[in-house]
Design a protein that fits this description.
With about 325 residues, the protein is α/β, with parallel strands linked by helices. It has twelve helices and eleven strands.
Length: about 325
């Protein structure tokens, strides 16, 4: 030792060089994909497929975490309160981020303020379906029938997409329509097939086989373009609702403050997910459509659809008791 005290510059250099300032690699433990609805539905399938894709890409297990209740609010609230470290993410249907803020004034989260949009995972059309026994072959015929007598339409409960689409049709066509809520869409479709309901606006996987086998008739699909799975069926915007292209989408979100580099990495993986031949084959079997969006595009899509649904909810007077 030479007895000299270290200079201030030398001390600063040694502190900057110490490994204690290095950021831990991400991810450094399993990632939880919070799913705000029950197992067995479209989000369950998307979450599992996405988890299977992300696991080898990120080098950590990606585990679906089902936190159900309050129309998806409980799962979303859990992610909103999680640390923004990329280890807790939300995969959700659009309505949790576009409908619930209007429908549930005490949702427990702000869909704009409390999340980091990452990207889209999939899209899916809903289908205006009627029993094969109903004497109508197109949406115009259904509306005409609804002006002669009330039409009964089923859904999985107040505020779900099937209910809101039904209320939208009632508002824009003037048809008489009565809502019949069920505990799940499956029972509503069963009643529709039996001819005890007049229509259901159902997510395509729930009715595609019935349409193919002739038990139900598809009159229109939601979304901005015709579905590749029912290309002969017009969209709502082609029939009674010009310009209405709101459809069902599934997005990936993190808590507010998710680091940009993690957001970008996850978005890149979503792009690869949508392009994967394995995913595309499985999606085709399930009548899902691959979809991609940048975080900015997802932000804009969410804002547009939230404004559209808020107007419909207000005009229809929809309330959750």
């Amino acid at each position: 030792m030479n007895g000299h005290k270290p200079t201030r510059r030398a001390l600063l250099g040694s502190l900057l060089a110490t490994p204690a300032f290095a950021q831990p690699a991400w991810p450094d433990r399993p990632i939880r994909l919070v799913v705000p609805f029950a197992q067995g539905g479209p989000m369950d399938l998307i979450a599992r497929l996405l988890g299977e894709h992300l696991r080898p890409a990120l080098g950590q297990p990606v585990v679906p975490d089902f936190r159900t209740g309050a129309g998806g609010n409980l799962g979303a609230q859990h992610v909103a309160q999680a640390a923004p470290d990329g280890h807790t993410l939300l995969v959700t249907i659009d309505t949790v981020m576009t409908v619930n803020a209007t429908l549930y004034p005490r949702a427990g989260f702000d869909p704009v303020r409390d999340f980091t949009p990452i990207g889209l995972a999939a899209r899916m059309a809903s289908v205006v379906t009627v029993p094969a026994s109903l004497p109508v072959t197109d949406l115009a015929g259904l509306v005409a029938l609804g002006k002669q007598r009330p039409l009964t339409y089923g859904s999985a409960g107040v505020g779900v997409p099937a209910h809101l689409y039904g209320e939208y049709l009632r508002l824009i066509t003037g048809a008489q329509m009565e809502h019949v809520p069920f505990r799940g869409l499956g029972p509503a479709v069963t009643e529709l097939v039996a001819g005890r309901l007049d229509l259901v606006v159902a997510l395509m996987p729930g009715v595609a086989a019935h349409v193919t086998e002739g038990r139900l008739r598809a009159l229109a699909v939601t979304g901005g373009s015709r579905s590749p799975f029912m290309p002969q069926v017009p969209t709502l915007s082609e029939t009674v609702a010009p310009g209405f292209d709101t459809g069902t989408w599934f997005g990936l979100y993190g808590p507010r403050g998710l680091p940009p580099e993690i957001t970008a990495r996850l978005n890149a993986e979503l792009q690869r997910f949508a392009a994967s031949p394995i995913v595309r084959e499985r999606f085709t079997q399930l009548t899902f459509e691959p979809a991609t969006a940048s975080p900015e595009e997802l932000t804009a899509l969410q804002a547009r659809d939230a404004a559209s649904w808020a107007r419909i909810i207000r005009e229809a007077g929809v309330r959750v008791e």
